[in-house]
């Protein structure tokens, strides 16, 4: 009887190991995909120096980036700002994605955080804050927005002040 219980435990153990292996592969794939996306963004997007400023774009935007700043505080790198819903519908679970770069535009890392208001109503402005551990190589930042379980949300950028 002990042998039957032992064999059953080994069977479960094998399945647990396969599930763990699949989970690890999923995580590795996700990390590599995120790195590829970040490198693509670094090559295509304008970056903002730590001192400030925003750029303008055009198209079928759903959000408007009102303002944002990048800086360091207590050993963390912080991107704060405000975003406005300029679409015709309220939006739920909007995520701010902060990408950080070196002075020459080389991607360093990316951090994400939900914006403060959920949902963000039509014509409403919500604050956001993206926080991550600091890296001395970081010199510039860029912000974009995405759906929690979806793609990038087209964002209008206010004219530089």
Please specify the SSE layout and strand pairing.
Elements: H1 2-44, E1 48-49, E2 63-73, E3 76-85, E4 94-101, E5 107-114, E6 125-133, E7 140-147, E8 152-153, E9 155-157
Parallel strand pairs: 2-9
Antiparallel strand pairs: 1-7, 2-3, 3-6, 4-5, 4-7, 7-8
How far is it from the N-terminal to the C-terminal residue, by CA? 79 Å
Look at the structure and name the CATH superfamily of the largest domain: Immunoglobulins
Spatial shape: elongated
Please report the number of helical segments. 1
The largest β sheet comes out as: 5 strands, antiparallel
Q: How many domain regions?
A: 2
How many β-strands, per DSSP? Answer: 9
Quick check: average pLDDT? 82
What low-confidence regions span 5 or more consecutive residues with pLDDT below 50?
Answer: 41-46, 51-57
The first-level CATH class of the largest domain is given as: Mainly Beta
Helical amount: 25-40%
Give the DSSP E fraction (strand runs of 2 or more residues): 35-45%
Radius of gyration: 21 Å
The CATH architecture category of the largest domain equals Sandwich
What is the string of helix and strand elements?
A: HEEEEEEEEE
Q: Can you offer a commentary on this structure?
A:
This protein is of the alpha+beta class and 161 residues long. It has 2 domains: 1-44; 48-157, Sandwich (Immunoglobulin-like). Helix content is 27%, strand content 38%. The chain contains 1 helix and 9 strands. The strands form 2 sheets. Strands 1, 4, 5, 7 and 8 form a 5-stranded antiparallel beta sheet that branches. Strands 6-3-2-9 form a 4-stranded mixed beta sheet, with no helix packed on it. A hairpin with a 2-residue loop joins strand 2 (63-73) and strand 3. The longest helix has 43 residues, at 2-44. The model is unreliable at 41-46 and 51-57 (pLDDT under 50).
